[in-house]
Amino acid sequence: MGVITYEMEVPTSVPPARIFKAFVLDFDNLFPKVVPRAIKSCELVQGDGGPGSIKKVTFGEGRQFKYVLHKVDGIEKENFTYNYSAIEGDALKDKFEKICFETKFEAAPGGGTICKSIGDTEIKEEDIKAGKERSAGMYQAVEAYLLANPDLYN
């Protein structure tokens, strides 16, 4: 098994600036509300939320893993990009030093956003597929929340 780079794209009807604010800048508050079974809590354990900061994401009850630490590698608010690495936690299965992610929110033709995520890891193909399905579900949950609350994150 070598390093695998995988990509996924999730379309949404929400504009890039708005979904970026919700999905990246307010992740800590929004995700436990919108997908509480997936994300129980998220807390900043080091830094101010910018590059170099570390966040602890605690997964919901009954999930396969308990927690993961994310290190913020970069945030470009003007380009709607977010880079982070999973650096610690049982989600790494004592096999990985880290898993790197790059997320971009790009304007879609005709409106909305294409949420693009690229990850580098050493992992089985079936685990990548399951992870993509969970991620797509979270994008869809945030989209539904934003559509139901049109005054938020404008």
Structural commentary:
The protein is of the alpha+beta class and 154 residues long. It contains 3 helices and 7 strands. It has helices at residues 16-25, 27-34, 125-148; strands at residues 4-12, 39-46, 54-59, 67-76, 81-88, 99-107, 113-121. A 7-stranded antiparallel β-sheet has the order 1-7-6-5-4-3-2. Helix 1 packs across helix 2 (27-34) and helix 1 (16-25) packs across helix 3 (125-148). The longest helix is centred in the last third of the chain and has 24 residues, at 125-148. The radius of gyration is 15 Å and the shape is globular.
Main features:
alpha+beta; 3 helices; 154 residues; 7 strands; seven-stranded antiparallel β-sheet
Quote the beta fraction.
35-45%
Helix and strand pattern = EHHEEEEEEH
The gross shape turns out to be globular
Strand order across the largest sheet: 1-7-6-5-4-3-2
Distance between the termini: 44 Å
Unreliable stretches, pLDDT < 50, 5 or more residues? none
**Structure summary, number of beta strands:** 7
Radius of gyration over C-alpha positions, nearest whole angstrom: 15 Å
User: Overall mean pLDDT score?
Assistant: 87
Q: In which range does the helix fraction lie?
A: 25-40%
Q: What is the count of helical runs?
A: 3
Largest sheet: 7 strands, antiparallel
Helix/sheet category: alpha+beta
Give the helix/strand layout.
Blueprint: E1 4-12, H1 16-25, H2 27-34, E2 39-46, E3 54-59, E4 67-76, E5 81-88, E6 99-107, E7 113-121, H3 125-148
Antiparallel strand pairs: 1-7, 2-3, 3-4, 4-5, 5-6, 6-7
